[in-house]
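job 3f2a | input accepted
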Amino acid sequence: ENVDYINKKIFIVQYPNGDKLSHSHGKIKDVVDFELIHSASTYHGSSGSPIFLEGTTKVIGIHKQGNKKREENLGTLIYPFIQLLQSKKENKKLQKELKTNNDKKLNKKR
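job 3f2a | predicted structure (110 res):
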């Protein structure tokens, strides 16, 4: 899913340092490779928090760090990893089908 996320509104649910649950709104400023650069304010200890597209339950990334000097935060896009896992699952399924077909051919020859 190659979506243009730049300027999309986001929502982060965070539980910084095990304190109380909080949330933050912001926008995606840029996407570079697998990195989401966003403006949602986060607290120390919020790494690993899900990044949702605002108004949806769709998680598009995982927050990983903040940069106070640049007033921006970084997250990692998750769709490339989901695609990788799905392709591995499809490869295993295909390998199993090929093995089953080969086994059937061998059994017919006997």
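job 3f2a | The helical segments are 79-109.
job 3f2a | closed
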